[in-house]
Amino acid sequence: MSANVLEIKKVSKSFMDVPVVEDLSFRVKGGETFGLLGPNGAGKTTMMRMIMNIIQPDEGDILFNEQSRKHIKRLHFGYLPEERGLYPRSTVLDMLIYFGTLNNLSRRKAEVEAIRYLDRLGMVEFTDTKVSQLSKGMQQKIQFIAAFLHDPDVLILDEPFSGLDPINQVVLRDILQQYKEGEKILIISTHQMEQAEQLCDHICLINQAHVIIDGNIKDIKKKYRENAYIIETEKSIAELHQMDAIDILEEKNNAVKFTVTKKTFSIIDFLRKVKDQSPILKFEVVEPSLHDIFIQLIHEQASRGK
Ligand SMILES: Nc1ncnc2c1ncn2[C@@H]1O[C@H](COP(=O)(O)OP(=O)(O)OP(=O)(O)O)[C@@H](O)[C@H]1O
Ligand SMILES: [Mg+2]
Questions:
Q1: Domain with 15 in it
Q2: pTM of the prediction?
Q3: How far apart, in whole angstroms, are the C-alpha atoms of residue 29 and residue 51?
C-alpha cells in the first residue's frame, strides 16, 4: 500500500481583511502523526477547516495525492472539532448511526461499527443512553467514535485528549495507531506539548499565520540541543567543579548537568578523563523538551517583530 500525501500549498485566508493564515505550506505523509501546533489564535483551526472544505482558502490549494482536492469527488474526512457538537436528546447509538450514514455508511454497517467501537471504549452499556446523560469524558469518546466510525482517508483531531483520563487516552492511542497503519493521513492539534512529543512523528509550529518550524520531531530536537550533558560518577561533585574544561549548570542529587567550554577538549576527551579516575554511573545527552523549543521560537519571533 503506498502512503497518501496531503499537501498544503501556499494557502492564505483572511477574515475581514485580517490575515489569519498567510502563504502557508506543509506536507503530511500517510502513516505519520502530524502535529499542527501553535499558540492560541495562530490559525490552526482555520487551517483544519480549510483542509476539511468547511471554509475555502482565498489563495493557494490543498492537494491529496497530487490532485487538487477541488477535483476529488470522494475523499472521506473524519473531524473532531474543538467545539464538540453532539445531539443531547438522541441516544448514543442513534446518534452514531446518524453520523455514520452522513459519511456514506449503510445503516447496518454504521450500527455494527458503532457497537464495535463502543465496546472497545468500554461504553457498550450506554448504547441506549441519551447523550445529555453522559459525563463530559464519555461525550468526548462518543465524538471521537463519530470522527472515525467510517474509516476516513483523512482524520483531523482538534485537541483530542482534553477531558480524557489516562486509561482512555491509551485506548484511543491504540485506535489511532491502527488507523495509521493504513498509511492514512492523521493531523492532530494540541497545546499539550508533552502529548505532542509522545504522539507526533512530525510537527509544524505556526504562529501569527506563518510556519515557524516544520520537520521531523527527532531532527528538531537534535537541532535545538544546547550541548549540555548529565553525568553521575563516583567522583565527588567538588572534583568535577575543579575541571576547567567544563561549566556546571545544575546539580541534582549526585548528578551534574554541564557543558564543555574548552574548544580543544571534546565530550569524548572529558568522558575518557573521568573514566580513568572513577566509574561513570550515568551519562546522557540533554534533549530540549518540545515545550522549551516552542517557547523559545515564539519569543524569538515576537522579538523579531518588534
Ligand atoms: N469565522 C471567523 N471570523 C473572523 N475571525 C476569525 C474566524 N475564525 C477565526 N478567526 C480569527 O482567526 C484567528 C485564528 O483563529 P483559529 O481559530 O484558527 O486559531 P487557533 O490556532 O485554532 O487557536 P486556539 O489554539 O485558540 O484554538 C483568530 O484571531 C480568530 O479570531
Ligand atoms: Mg483552535
A1: 5-222
A2: 0.85
A3: 14
| pLDDT tens digits along 73-91 | 788 899 998 776 777 788 9
Q: Is the CB–ligand 1 distance for residue 78 below 6 Å? A: no
Distance (Å) from CA 81 to ligand 2 centroid: 9
For 38, the enclosing helix (H) or strand (E) is: none
SS3 letters across 135-149:
CHHHHHHHHHHHHHC
Could you tell me if 259 and 217 lie in one domain? no
Position 305 in a domain? no
Q: Are both 205 and 254 inside the same structural domain?
A: no
Residue with CA at minimum distance from ligand 1 atom 27: 40
Residue 44 Cβ inside 6 Å of ligand 1? The answer reads: yes
C-alpha angle with apex 69: 84 to 99, nearest 5 degrees?
30
Q: Is the CB of residue 42 below 6 angstroms from any atom belonging to ligand 1?
A: yes
